[in-house]
Amino acid sequence: MTANSKNRVRIGGGEWRSRWLRFPDAPGLRPTPDRVRETLFNWLGQDLEGLSCLDLFSGTGALGFEALSRGATRVVMVEQSISAYQSLLENKSILNAAGAEIIHRDALQFLARNAERFDVIFLDPPFNQGWLTKLLPQLSAHLTVDGVVYAEAEFPLTEEAGWEVRKHGKAGNVYFHLLKSAHAD
User: Most buried by CB count within 10 Å: which residue of 57, 71, 114, 115?
Assistant: First the structure.
């Protein structure tokens, strides 16, 4: 893997706490900061025992591997960039992360072919490309009844069509949100 010493992110909790994930230089690849991941997993609860997660735009794998480290049974990690995909495979092997299923595919293509429902969907797409507008209308069909979506964006989300913003925060230029389908309750 061609990653310099800056291209690493640390898992913050669970079985693999303090283990480092390496990732390649790739345009638009920005790992979710430690502080934001800590907040996210406080929102979700520290123990994700038995949950099934989908990590669209997996990138560095920080969210997906962190979920597995904290007890998620399975995380499907979808990544289109070949270098990031290969890095995910290497990190899966290093961690012996049996619950990680890593798929090299575009997010929209994955959703079109997927019939499975997930407890948590991590959505951290490249900024300024309109991904949230394309994806949010489709995601409730991929969630369990009590499922939630974690979404990062370059702007604050308000009550998006069909979604309630349950929690939100901001770190630097990144806005992060926990969303629940308005049709779930």
Answer: 57
Classify residue 2: in a domain, yes or no.
no
In the prediction, which pLDDT does 3 show? 45
| pLDDT confidence bin for 8, thresholds 50/70/90 | confident
> CA-to-CA distance for 142 and 147, rounded, in angstroms?
9
Average pLDDT for 160-169: 86
Alpha helix (H) ranges present in 20-130?
Answer: 34-44, 62-69, 82-95, 107-113
Please check whether residue 93 lies inside any domain of the structure: yes
Classify residue 162: in a domain, yes or no.
yes
Q: In what order do the strands lie in the sheet with 163-171?
A: 100-104, 74-79, 52-56, 118-123, 143-153, 174-181, 163-171
The CATH number linked to 74 is 3.40.50.150
Per the structure, the count of domains in the chain is 1
Q: What size, in residues, is the chain? A: 185
Q: Is residue 120 part of a domain?
A: yes
Is the pLDDT confidence value at 5 over 70? no
Structure tokens belonging to residue 122: 């991590």
pLDDT at 184: 57
Task: Give the pLDDT confidence of 30-57 residue by residue, as tens digits.
Answer: 777 778 888 999 999 878 999 999 999 9
CA max distance for the chain: 46
